[in-house]
Amino acid sequence: MKRLVLLVVALVFAFSTAVIAADKAAAPAAPADKAVAAEKVDAAKVDAKADVKKAEKKAEKKVKKTSKKAAKKVDADAKKAEKKVEEAAPAAK
Fold this sequence. Notes:
mainly alpha, about 0% strand, rod-shaped
């Protein structure tokens, strides 16, 4: 009977020691989780900055392309107007 009681006490002691050790090991894990979360946030910020830069470059290209098209259209319209003036000038003489 004494052996059974000693065995039960030893098992309870071993179990409680294991639980306490697990709690102590889990406590420092929280700051590690924060560090991982901070790294993820930093990575997300870098990705966001890269996306913004890409969007800005794309917008610049679009503006340049549009301005080139507008300049070509203005040149074409100016040429058409010159032709009309030239055609009208001989008729006026």
